[in-house]
Design goal:
about 375 residues, alpha+beta, 8-stranded antiparallel beta sheet
Length: about 375
């Protein structure tokens, strides 16, 4: 009786969320290798000819040049830069309409300006609002409906998919852990008729995708429901060897050298000196009268969970704080690694391949599940006629 109730719940949740799960999973699989594919697809944007003993221009000057490349009314708000002398720097500008329905109404504009940081030359201006990988990302996050409308649909469908994974495992559980019953639960009989093959494919593939798919759901839900991050971190902090009651983020009182007039230029010069081999750095532009400026340093380009974050007082150029992943308690570190876990970058190429395969597997489950339901429905109709 209990299993019948679980089967009923599994069936209707699957039918209700199937299309969303298919689109989110397929777009997630495509987006898994977006970093590598972008460099391959747009080499003229991302790569420049390295100079001998290069020295970047002050960031404020580069921001001004990037701003000149945009139409009036569009403003640069973030910079992604790379210590690698063969890479361009990316200056982003975007504005949203929170009430806008659909991707093209939600984003009023979204531009990326690519500059050679050593000459100030504008390499390219990209309309990121219509760029392929950005569209894939927005499909993954909100079905191209805009955050206000699509975000909730994706969030709650992901939550229901997690329930589907658990109920699916309960239904998969073999009555006997031996012989033909077990073999059919973990291996495909390719000689079976297509209806049986489809049924086995749904069960077997669901079993193999379960652990990684559940991790992808949980990490995705943390993006969807940011309020859950604090209790999530607090729970895992209990298992940390770091005393969270005593340890605070690293602080520093030393003053950085004043080479330029603008504090952010001096902070960037300091960060580049401290981390010449870093993967990338990000700067979110603050108001001119902001008391503090900051730079996030990613030690590896695709790993947001390995970082140093510098905060500097604009008045006297003293370092007010230095945050590092190394100082985080277990739960806080797990939250910081959420992006790396969700995208598969946590273990490099091998884990990205795993995430890619599992995401494709998740996309296939609604398809095979729908066919299982349709075949049983058709079978019942035939019986009634007879």
């Amino acid at each position: 009786m209990l299993k019948k109730g679980i089967l009923w719940l599994h069936k209707w949740l699957g039918l209700f969320t199937g299309l969303v799960v298919f689109l989110v999973s397929l777009s997630g699989a495509i987006y898994t290798f977006h970093d590598e594919l972008k460099l391959w697809a747009y080499p003229d944007k991302y790569f420049i000819v390295p100079m001998i003993d290069p020295k970047p221009l002050p960031l404020t000057e580069l921001i001004g040049r990037a701003q000149e490349a945009l139409p009036a009314g569009e403003e640069i708000s973030r910079v992604d830069l790379y210590p690698d002398p063969g890479r361009s720097w990316v200056f982003r500008g975007s504005e949203i309409n929170p009430a806008g329905f659909g991707h093209w109404n939600y984003f009023r504009y979204y531009k990326r300006v690519f500059l050679n940081p050593y000459t100030g030359e504008c390499v390219a201006v990209e309309d990121s609002k219509n760029e392929f990988f950005q569209l894939i990302l927005q499909l993954h996050m909100n079905l191209l409906l805009g955050k206000t409308y699509g975000h909730g649909i994706v969030a709650y469908s992901t939550l229901l998919f997690a329930v589907l994974l658990v109920t699916g495992m309960i239904l998969w559980w073999p009555k006997k852990w031996r012989g033909k019953t077990l073999r059919r639960s973990i291996w495909l009989d390719r000689k079976a008729k297509w209806k049986r093959l489809n049924y086995d494919l749904h069960n077997v593939w669901g079993f193999y995708t379960f652990p990684v798919a559940l991790i992808l759901c949980i990490t995705g839900l943390l993006f969807s429901f940011p309020a859950c991050k604090e209790p999530y971190s607090a729970f895992f902090n209990r298992f940390s060897f770091v005393d969270t009651e005593v340890v605070v983020p690293r602080s520093a009182t030393n003053k950085i050298a004043k080479i330029y007039d603008a504090p952010i230029d001096n902070l960037l010069a300091y960060a580049l000196q401290q981390h010449p081999q870093a993967g990338m750095m990000s700067v979110r532009l603050r108001a001119p009268d902001a008391p503090i400026v900051d730079i996030q340093v990613r030690l590896e380009e695709s790993r947001s969970g390995l970082f140093r974050w510098y905060y500097v007082h604009t008045a006297d150029l003293t370092l007010s704080e230095l945050r590092s992943h190394e100082d985080l308690a277990a739960g806080d570190l797990l939250s910081a690694l959420n992006f790396d876990l969700h995208t598969g970058t946590i273990g490099g190429l091998s884990t990205k391949i795993v995430v890619f395969i599992i995401a494709l597997g998740c996309a296939s489950l609604p398809v095979t599940g729908y066919l299982v339901w349709w075949n049983k429905r058709t079978k019942r109709k035939v019986r009634k006629r007879v």
